[in-house]
Batch of 4 targets.
Target 1
Amino acid sequence: MVKLGLIPIVLSLWIAAVSAHEGEDHGPAPAPAPSSSPAAATSAYSSTKAATDLKTLCSSLSYLPVCSINSMVCASMSSRYPAQCNPVALVHVGCSDPAAKSSAACSTITALCTSTPSDPACSANVTALPSAQVASAETYSICTEMPKMTACNICTGQPSASGVYQNCDPFNAFSQLCLDMPMMTQCPAWTDFCMANNITTYCGGSAPMPSMTGMQSMSGMPSMTGMSSPSSTSSPSATPKSGAMATKDLSLGVLSALAITSLYMILAH
């Protein structure tokens, strides 16, 4: 009878230990997620003004790659390629092309990006779009080597003294040539563009495979020598407990074990 009378005492000891654990400080609660994200910065260069400048730019320099995109893609597929058909991006990239450096259509965005380079318009981009000179030089090189390729009919003869075909669309010519023979040595710039954009007009149904030498840089993969060993990083869940918290856990374990052991011994006898 005495042994049975000890049962409530042992149970009370165990309950007290559990209650102490539940009431202890387990650290600060996770910070709540922000209620809203910061508003996007507003550019001083509007899309309306950009569209006007793009029209002016392409009326005199139709051979620019941005003008090729604007006429061959954006005129009918702007909803499919919204980033590439953003008029602000097209003007910014077009006016960065050396072939357009003297165009009056570039005066506004050039002045803006000189005085306020942090303006969003000054980072608008069509990734990896080659310049008119690169497209012209690679087209000329391919067609000098293989003049019977069909796309060599797009831009004939030699580029102008500035190194640019000015009476045709050199970017389209370059793209069609590389679509026919993507592994030609002249095609890495086209590959870069299509890996970043994959516009069917210039790249066909799918993005081309990068060359082995360019695969690492285009994919962003680290080199093998630069890869960290898994053991050198620690998981947030593996953060060690503080000394005070570890002591509390140990005390709880001892009290719980003592209570359960005592209860077992009472019932066993």
Target 2
Amino acid sequence: MLALRPPGRYGPDGNEFTQRVTALLVGRYGAWACGWWWAVGEGGSAGPVQSWCCAWHSLRPGPEAAARAVVAALLEWREWLELSAERFAELAPPPGATEEDRSWAVQRASSRLVTVVVSATMAQCGWHKLARRTLAWYLDSTGVPEERAVGLVERAIGGASRAGPRRASRWSTPSGRTSRSASPATGPTVTTDALAAWRTVRRQVDWAAVGGTADAADAAPVRPVTDGLTDWIAAEGPSGAPDGPDGCWRPAS
């Protein structure tokens, strides 16, 4: 590694330097080392490495300085891989898990791992690239076939890196025409202001008649004339403690 001469600060051979060092490290330590230069931010392949940016900005004059910079990045990348392996083991489905249990484990792992990735990349541009890689590695570690893993990863973060199928510009607000064309896919149009409706109902209540005030912060809770939950339990629910596995009453059948 000391024989490698780093490029000039803004020289044209920065990519060549990265490729040569990558080939050297992979040949010496194995394929895991290929991500040593995956630095935070889209310019650095959107990885978790913070001690490296790129050959133009991370290197200092002299081969020894170049070696120290690469070693620091390699060790940081190795630490990320080892921590990821530990997380994969913690989030793996238990032996003999049913298909339903495995599905739940994958959902839980997706949530946890994406959160870890966002933190490691500081949510900078391209964080979803590392999230895709990490989720794919996790699914592979649990034995999920590659063709199925692709679909699971897409469902987990498929909308993270794009506003829609080539509809909205990445860095600008979509036009009114684009917004209207996308609204059926993003949900129903809201036509009622729920807050305004709630305030209207409050103004219509005769608070004096029910023994309370609408504005007093220290007023006692107002007891409603009819408690719908109590009435339902009396009519439909069994007496005694809840009988449902989630602590809820079940209607009498």
Target 3
Amino acid sequence: MLQSSQDSEGRSVPVGSSNKAALWLELPLEIKLGGGFTVGLIPPSTDKSQTTEKDIYTPSTTVPGKFKPLPEVSKEDATFIDKMIAEKYVPYQNIPEGAGKTVQELKALGERLFPFSHFSLHLAMCVYDWTTASFARLVFMKIFQYTGIEQTPFPVDQPSIAQQIWMSKWGTYTPQDPYFMKSFMMKPASSQPGRSDTARKCRHRTS
């Protein structure tokens, strides 16, 4: 359930404000055979006297979707991730928003969330890496791929990736920050490289 609240005039206000008049939005989830699902929305009624039993249990809006299976983890994948962990490329070493999770904590989470896999730590590490500061590395590598051609893996626009890294100014996520640059397998930069240097450094990351 998602919680929202309204002020005295019925206008929505952010959750966590001083107003305590909270309403609950019910989101019924129906999971179907074959991996499909439907999530609905049952909005709270503002007029209880006009609410019927049908209104209470019937979603006003539904959205269909389909679950994606978890990727299969090969021994080669696991070996590569183990190397990334050993060299401290993952998990991100200094998340400024708060204390990050240790490898031991992620191992425990992996055993709880992926008990069916021998590579539970590796799955947990990849999910955590995607959803923390390292997401920038993954996004840059995706948005600058040339996907309109048949060649796979898709080549990347290496100079543009390096340009975006150089222009990063999100708090501590800058080209001068050693942790941010380490996530790209690079060292802190004090000046913008030329296009030939840029391509060479990016090639090291994507090879």
Target 4
Amino acid sequence: MQAHESSGLSFSGVWTSFRIGLLQKDIASLYEGRLAYQKALLSASGRLLPNRKRARSNPRVSHTRSQKSTKFPKEQRKAKAKQANADAEKDKPIPPRLTTK
């Protein structure tokens, strides 16, 4: 796998520039929109990452995925309750049949 060459722009910096420059403004006309876009683009182009002389000392690691058994505790409780009710029904004595004459 080849390393991806970065453009040198900070993602969070670019997102902040566009969020503040475009999303938080009331733009009424196409001209105002284009002007706001140009200003946000100019601001974002200056948000560069610092040049690191050496590689990261803390390599990026993905978090381990938790087991599925911990994701749905409510459904598991319902299933256990349903099973307990079914077991309780099995243990009940069968009532005598009523006969009519």
